[in-house]
Design goal:
The chain has 329 residues and is α/β, with parallel strands linked by helices. 46% of the residues lie in helices and 15% in strands. It is built from 14 helices and 11 strands. β6 and β7 form a beta hairpin. The longest helix is centred in the C-terminal third of the chain and has 17 residues.
Length: 329
């Protein structure tokens, strides 16, 4: 290991010490769900938004609100419904009779952590208003433009069960989310612990372990993590294997993929792999970091054909084959 990487490694080891404190603090409230908590931290450290998919009752809201308390930021939960309007989300101008002028009333989006609950329940206008805010990091109300606070992270949830009366997000808009997480049920011993905690009369009060400005500082440290050219090439190969499967010996996937992963996939794979290395206190990225977050970055970016659906092949099956076939450096 050359001296530069050794120095970066030591710096990252020191700077990432708060990660364990956050995980422990959240662990006092949330049982299990380590995968979800770690991915939320990756989103926070990479400045990327997250789409959560899972059945109701898996502590998605509780996890996000607990994380916001642990990092001492403001939190807003917005329940998306078919009658929601963009103004309900962003804010509006209200006429003040006393002043005989319009005043700006800011909406709930002016916060640090936003939980957009059941995003697919609201009409396209509301979805696009949220996605624009995510992209531009600013809101225009009337003639005034307001920057959003930093850190600003949107966590949108989708219920995979009920699809009646929903407005599925178009592929181009889903692509703006850095990660798409599939949240599963807890294990037996975890569920037993959940019952015991939830039936107690006292609840744990979460203590802040880090300040927002420290998160912003940690982000700049994450960008210093060393990524070898071979790892960069590995990321490119994974993405290109979804676009040109035949070139990578994946002949069986030919005709099953309509659209491969976009360039955003390459960018987010690199960013998320660095953040994953940071969570593990390492100053360099390994192929394992890329493989660990590969599914979450790509599962919403690969669009399959009707032939794949007819063969009952899922996007996860395709990505798994790609990750298993592309040569690891």
């Amino acid at each position: 290991m050359n001296p530069d990487i050794k120095a970066i490694n030591e710096k990252i080891e020191k700077e990432s010490s708060f990660v364990e404190n956050i995980l422990n603090e959240i662990g006092n409230v949330i049982v299990g769900q380590t995968y979800m908590v770690e991915r939320l931290l990756i989103g926070l450290l990479s400045d990327g938004h997250i789409l959560l998919e899972g059945v109701p009752g898996l502590a998605k809201t509780l996890t996000v609100s607990t994380l916001s308390k642990a990092i001492d930021t403001k939190f807003q939960r917005i329940q998306f419904t078919p009658d929601l309007l963009p103004a309900d989300l962003l804010g509006t101008l209200i006429y003040n009779q006393k002043e005989m002028d319009f005043i700006t009333k800011k909406g709930p989006i002016f916060s640090n952590l936003i939980l957009a609950d059941e995003i697919n329940r609201s009409p396209a206008k509301v979805q696009s208003a949220l996605l624009e805010a995510m992209q531009e990091r600013q809101i225009t109300i009337g003639e005034n433009t307001f920057p959003l606070e930093d850190p600003f992270l949107v966590l949108a949830t989708q219920n995979p069960i009920e699809q009646e009366g929903t407005y599925p997000l178009p592929e181009a808009q889903v692509d703006r989310f850095m990660l798409k997480l599939q949240i599963g049920y807890p294990k037996k011993d975890e569920e037993l612990e959940i019952i015991r905690r939830q039936t107690k009369s006292e609840s744990y009060k979460v203590q802040p372990v880090i300040k927002p400005h420290e998160i912003i500082k940690a982000r700049s440290v994450v960008t210093e993590i060393y990524m070898d050219e071979k790892i960069e090439q590995y990321i490119i190969d994974i993405v290109f294997a979804t676009r040109e499967p035949k070139s990578y010996g994946l002949d069986e996937l030919e005709g099953l993929i309509n659209y491969g992963a976009s360039p955003r996939a390459s960018i987010y794979l690199a960013k998320a792999a660095r953040a994953h290395a940071f969570l593990n206190g390492r100053g360099y990225v390994t192929p394992e970091d890329v493989r660990e977050i590969g599914m979450d970055v790509m599962r919403h970016r690969v669009i399959l054909s009707y032939e794949a659906e007819a063969e009952e092949m899922s996007t996860e099956d395709v990505i798994r084959r790609v990750l298993n076939r592309v040569e690891v450096p």
